[in-house]
Amino acid sequence: GPRPPPRPPLPLPSNMLTLRNVCVQETTITLHASTADAKGQLCGLTACHAPQARERCRENDDDAFVAGVLAEALPRFRVRRSMEAYPVATARRYERVALFTLTGNIGHDLYNGLLDVFSSSLSRRFDALFANVMWFTGRQSWDAAVARPDTSWSLTVVDALFNETRTPLYWASDVHMAGSRFGHVPSLGLCADELVVRAQGRLAENVGWDALPALPSLRDKVLARVLTDVSKREKLTLYTRGDARRRRFQGNVQSFATRLGATKILARMPRGDPRQQIALYASSDVVVAPFGSNTANSVFMRPGSVFVEVSPLCPSLCEEGCHPYSKTLSGNMADNYNISRANACLNLMADGPPLHRYSGVNYHIVPTCSGTLRCASGKMVEPSGRPVEMRKAWKANFNDDLDVDVALPRVLEILRGRSPQTRVAPFAVACPRVSQN
User: Which residues contact 288 (CB under 8 A, 6 or more apart)?
Assistant: First the structure.
């Protein structure tokens, strides 16, 4: 008989929680409206949710559940319930405010809410932005970024995405900025008829899967705002991470570059003007680079371009269940991808490829499996099989330098179009519903 029509794809889980009638004053968040629908927004559990999601979603007290979400987004803040009239008379009132995290690191910013918030803004604009500052390089660097926002990747991209509507940005510091008091939340406070919060740690991945279709629009908007010359093209850009202390290309790098046909070799990433960094990726047909947060810059590459990441990691780190992003309510996140399990694992463990579901960029990873520790049955072990008790032992090989002689044959196969087995994006992912109990 005739085949039944294909089922429509299941909706992918969101990381976004909308709260009504919320005020923020100093380090206190006040809830003025019911939070009864909060769990309904975040707790439609799927095979893509992290193992702890079920326990969190069993919280009986709706306000306590929301307080837990807000505590992850704003660690220094306390949450309280109020029956007082809304809004607070002295506070600045906005119709719709987005809360997310800024770190000064491209990969972390995209995964910690920037992409999710931008995606949400496409359907309805925000009147204000509220950022939790977790600046990796400390207060002095953050103060410099505030003084000259055009030198900051994070603030340049936020400006490109939102400032054409003159959306104000407020910020607060968290425990990672101990001793800092930025005071940039208005002293009288702000109130939001709707506060849209990027919930942390609810999925096996940091990214909200439902936000990924917005990536091409994010790329187009940033490039339209920051690029002045789009005519120059680079056939192949090689970035060696010579400006870092770890995860650098080592060996005969010059010979490696020659064999690849590199037209541009960078030991140091352009600093001080993020537009140069964005333009570098946007103008390159092929980029070859080591594993690291810099790979998230690949979101600015054009459709049809190629990104090759050389990684110290081994797929078995995820396949055997040691990497935290591999663990979900129903098993291994890699099993929800439509690519090989090994490639899905390499995708999950990297900063760049999870963003490329819809970008049109062909993303490859060449794993070198450096170091001696391996994952076996969910435990990191030494070559002898002895378990490793070190905290975060799964990160043991993350910072290893990368031998270009080991990577060369696989990279050449990719450039010759003969290595489809290394391609980890584009990809598709499905998140079927699981038991809610």
Answer: 236, 237, 238, 239, 260, 262, 308, 310, 411
Which pLDDT score, from 0 to 100, does residue 270 have? 81
What's the helix, strand, coil split of the chain in %, to 5?
35, 20, 40
Structure tokens at 49: 């949710």
Percentage of the chain surpassing pLDDT 70?
92
Length of the chain: 437
- DSSP per position, 306-355: EEEEEES--THHHHTT-SGGGEETTEEGGGGBSS-HHHHHHHHHSSSGGG
Residues 6+ apart with CB under 8 A from 60: none
Instruction: Name residues whose C-beta falls within 8 Å of residue 313's C-beta, 6 or more positions apart in sequence.
Output: 291, 346, 349, 350, 367, 369, 397, 398
Does pLDDT of 57 surpass 70? yes
DSSP class of residue 4 equals P
Distance CA 155, CA 169 (A): 10
CA 174 to CA 77: how far, in whole Å? 8
pLDDT reported for residue 173: 63
Question: What beta strand segments (E) does 40-118 contain?
Answer: 78-81, 92-102
pLDDT of residue 60: 92
Q: 62: pLDDT confidence band, cut at 50, 70 and 90? A: very high
Q: Which residues pair with 102 in a beta bridge?
A: 133
Residue 274 identity = P
What is the signed CA dihedral for 357, 359, 360, 365, rounded to 10 degrees?
-60
Q: What is the pLDDT of residue 402?
A: 95
Q: Judge whether residue 280 has pLDDT over 90.
A: yes
- Using CA atoms, how far residue 187 sits from 90, 170, 245, 320, in Å, is 10, 11, 41, 50
Give CA separation, 203 vs 45, 210, 300, 343, in Å.
9, 12, 25, 19
How many Å apart are CA 139 and CA 177, to the nearest integer? Answer: 7
DSSP codes, 393-433 = GGGTTTT--EEHHHHHHHHHHHHTT--GGGEEES--B---B
Give the pLDDT of residue 2. Answer: 54
Q: Which two tokens stand for residue 29?
A: 């968040």
Over the stretch 115-159, which tens digit does the pLDDT of each residue have? Answer: 999 999 999 999 999 988 888 887 788 878 888 888 889 999 999
Q: Are 363 and 356 in contact (CB under 8 A)?
A: yes
The pLDDT assigned to 204 comes to 37
Section 321-341 average pLDDT:
91
Torsion of CA 286, 289, 295, 301, to 10 degrees: -10
